[in-house]
Amino acid sequence: MSNLIRFEDFEVNSRSGELLRRGSKVRLQNQPFQVLMLLLENAGEVVTREELQARVWEHDTFVDFDRGLNKAIHLLRRALRDRVIKPHFIENLPRRGYRFMVPVETVEVSAARLPKSQTSSPRIRLESVAVLPLENLSGDPAHEYFSDGTTAELISGLARIGSARVISRMSAMAFKGTRKTVRAIARQLRVDAIVEGTVTRSDQKVRITAQLIHARSERLLWSGTFERDLCDILSLQAELAHVIAQQIHRVLEPPDLPAPRVNSQAYELLLKGRFFRDKMTPPDLATSISFLTQAIELDPTYAHTYGELAQAFFYSGVFGVDHSAETFAKARSAALKAIELDESVATAHNSLAAIHIFHDWDWAAAEAESRRAVELNPGEPVGYVHLADYMSIQGRHDEAIEQFKHALQLDPISRVYLGGFALVLHRARRYMESIAECRKALEIDPRYPNAMWFLALSLEQTGNLQESIATLERVAELSHAPHFRALLGRAYALSGSQPKALEILNDLTTLSQRTYISPFDLAVIRAGLGDLNETFRLLEEAYDQRVFRIIELTFPMFDNLRQDQRWKDLVSRIGLPHSPSPSPQSGHV
Predict the structure, then answer these.
(1) Beta bridge partners of residue 223, listed in sequence order
(2) Span(s) in the chain for CATH 1.25.40
(3) What gap in Å lies between CA 457 and CA 184, rounded to an integer?
(4) In what helix (H) or strand (E) does residue 91 lie, and over which residues does it extend?
(5) Pairing, β 128-131 against β 165-166
(6) For 256-265, what is each residue's pLDDT tens digit?
């Protein structure tokens, strides 16, 4: 005898491993099916994450459990046509587990009546892959945005449908134009296989050639050529991603429904907008916003453009293109519009998570949006980064470090993420490890300002104030950003060089009469000078303006203020933890 389990329109065959809806088979892979079985066996009860790991992932030690569970739940919800917001079948209990919410009926039937289960082909042990930047064969360097954008979409599509670890685009783009061998690149990225290829754009046609190469042997495993009208670029990218996933025998879900046709002109503007956004300079961000706005004017129904626009506005607020409060409001509006059109746009949830962290100080919403972004696209590192940032700010340092490790598995040589990991370690007061990560980032880009910033902060905390000052002098010379000069002024004050500190303070105060200077930056120098009354007056001004960097109040550099009631009142209003919650200095990440 064997069991059929029924609920509403669905029937589960426990022997054949099949899910049916109204008699028609619903495709569901093994791991999501095993998750479903455990939920059904405990319908109405909470199934913990630990129970799921023991049942479904016990022997699969090479798989990242968090990423695997997120993807399995995503695929299961998709098969059941369930939603995360107001779910009907599967309830998520954050950090605890999941619960199946509807009644189930178990029916015993004879094994003779059950169909034989289909046997699956053996898996090839290709657990990870990197897609190198596709070469632009159009003959026009101005079309680099198109080849780079197509590379990004292929990476995203492959990460979405396959269970193999897919290196994110930031690390992959570091090898654009490289002469390194496939084996050397794979060794640096720690992957089993490499995808490389070309893009040719001719009028309204696009052709992509691609090949999958086994890294260790450099043997060609597969190659193919795909050609479409430009308006069908989404279906071309989806088909290519699925074919590659099939070649490495790690497909987790069937192809999506036929991809919609796009307005080709609007789609090109979207790719141009993303291309300039990724340069992360104020002029390029302004150019990005212009291209994305034009794309929306041509096609106001494509949700992903609003998601990209939300990210461009957010980074504009962070990097000072406009006043952050106004720019964050524009980012929020674009993100909400994307979600209104398509709730599954992960970039929109990532943008909302960042806004909740940097502007709203709505910590519960920040965690919810970050987790939703990870669930929607577990192969994209940004969601893990926002989740780690939230946890780090809230003093949940061990959890933050683990989440950031997920991001670095997907993007191992990104200077941005290595620098971000250094900041998480710095907040955790693991200064030597933070210094090591900063140096890794500076090996990739010796002029990367954030790595120098976080390096200087950790050097100061380890007693190396003069080396910290030298680092800040270099970054202030390279960047000219006011907050680097403010940090340098504070460091001068701590070293006893008050005239130098006062000179920077006076320069920034004068500059504030012509352009916006954050009161938080002026407060940083005042704190170094020991003028606490003026420090807190400026901090209150920063609070009233919702200056996003005020969340730095729990940085170690402000530990001398922790006993002041004014500091306690301020961090309470922001929702920051009072205790530094240090992690141990010993050990390695």
Answers:
(1) 211
(2) 442-589
(3) 34
(4) strand 90-93
(5) parallel
(6) 445 677 788 8
Rounded to whole angstroms, the Cα distance separating 74 from 60 reads 19
- What's domain 442-589's architecture? Alpha Horseshoe (1.25)
Phi (first) and psi of residue 445, to 5 degrees: -145, 100
C-alpha distances out from residue 132 to 150, 198, 362, 413, Å: 11, 10, 38, 14
AA letter at 500: K
For residue range 328-362, what is the model confidence (pLDDT) as tens digits?
Answer: 999 999 999 999 999 999 999 999 999 999 999 99
* Interatomic CA distance for residues 493 and 526, integer angstroms: 9
Sheet of 90-93: strands edge to edge? 46-48, 97-100, 90-93
| Nearest of 122, 197, 190 to residue 155 by alpha carbon | 197
Residue 119 has pLDDT above 50, yes or no: no
CB neighbours of 468 closer than 8 A, spacing ≥ 6?
Answer: 456, 457, 459, 460, 491
CA dist 534 to 490, 530, 560, Å?
Answer: 14, 9, 15
Structure tokens of 433?
């490890």
128-131 vs 193-202, strand pairing mode:
parallel
CATH 3.40.50.10610 range(s) for the chain read: 128-260
Contacts of 576 (CB under 8 A, 6+ apart): 393, 394, 551, 553, 554
Distance of CA 17 to the CA centre of its chain: 34
Rounded to an integer, what distance in angstroms lies between the CA atom of residue 335 and that of residue 369? 11
Burial string for 264-274 (b: 16+ CB within 10 Å, else e) reads bebbbbbbbbb
pTM for this model (two decimals)? 0.72
Architecture of the structural domain at 2-113: Orthogonal Bundle (1.10)
CATH 1.10.10.10 location in the chain: 2-113
- Distance between CA atoms of 562 and 564, rounded to whole angstroms? 6
Please check the confidence at residue 175 and state whether its pLDDT lies above 70.
yes
- Residue from 211, 225, 142, 136 nearest 177 by CA: 136
In angstroms, rounded to a whole number, what is the distance separating the alpha carbons of residues 502 and 508? 10
State the architecture of 128-260 in CATH terms: 3-Layer(aba) Sandwich (3.40)
